[in-house]
Design goal:
The protein is mostly helical and about 240 residues long. It contains 6 helices and no strands. The chain has a domain of about 140 residues: Four Helix Bundle (Hemerythrin (Met), subunit A). Helices cover about 90% and strands about 0% of the residues.
């Protein structure tokens, strides 16, 4: 009887021990599973963080490239604007120099023609006084014409855009050109009254110089008046 009780006790003890060991094993497996799951979560989080970081860096890189392109385009536009302004300035300077050169050329031509006319006037006592007066008037008119024309040509494009041309000076030039034309017609009449044919030829050549000069001034004046103006019509009404 005692042996049976002892055997039963041993089996009970073994069963309890086995049960406890199984429970411990289950808890160990659960802990290890939790640890592995935590590691997997950490690894996944690390990969996600790395991907997000790479995405942010890629986005930042694209933004930097885009900003760089915008800056480059702005610089190109600015450089083109500066180049255009420089070219316009150079063109204006070239045109101004050309105008001044033509102005001086016409002054010189008229001055030489006047000297030739005065020589003819010295030879003819009858018509000499009339020739002398017209020659002096031509020289004075040409000086005034060139001064006025230079003021018209030197007006900036910005000013012309808003208030138009220098209409007062333009009107002065037109009046003096008309006076020159009338005096040239008088010279043609005087030429036919000269006795000496050489004097006639000499005076005729100077008349042609004066006519050509007037045509050149008219062309320069016409070219200077070209261009659009916002309020030029209003300023033209008050110009005398």
């Amino acid at each position: 009887m005692k042996n049976k009780i002892l055997v039963v006790g041993v089996f009970v003890f073994i069963f309890i021990l086995a049960t406890n060991m199984y429970a411990i094993a289950q808890n160990g497996d659960t802990g290890m599973g939790n640890q592995m799951q935590q590691r997997i979560q950490i690894d996944n989080q690390s990969e996600n963080d790395q991907i997000q970081t790479q995405n942010r860096e890629q986005v930042q890189l694209e933004m930097n490239v885009e900003m760089g392109n915008q800056v480059q385009q702005q610089n190109q536009v600015q450089n083109q604007g500066e180049t255009s302004q420089l070219q316009n300035s150079e063109q204006q300077q070239t045109q101004t120099q050309k105008n001044l050169s033509l102005n001086e050329q016409r002054r010189s031509q008229v001055a030489n023609a006047v000297q030739e006319m005065l020589q003819v006037a010295e030879k003819d006592s009858e018509m000499g006084q009339q020739i002398r007066i017209i020659a002096q008037n031509q020289n004075q008119n040409q000086e005034k014409i060139e001064d006025s024309l230079q003021k018209v040509q030197s007006r900036s494009g910005f000013v012309k855009l808003f208030i138009g041309q220098n209409y007062a000076e333009i009107n002065n030039i037109k009046k003096m050109l008309m006076q020159n034309k009338e005096q040239i017609e008088q010279l043609n009449q005087i030429k036919n009254q000269l006795v000496n044919q050489d004097d006639q030829q000499q005076l005729n050549e100077q008349v042609q110089v004066l006519e050509q000069t007037n045509l050149q001034v008219g062309s320069s004046l016409e070219a200077a008046q070209k261009g659009f103006s916002l309020f030029g019509w209003m300023f033209r009404m008050f110009a005398k």
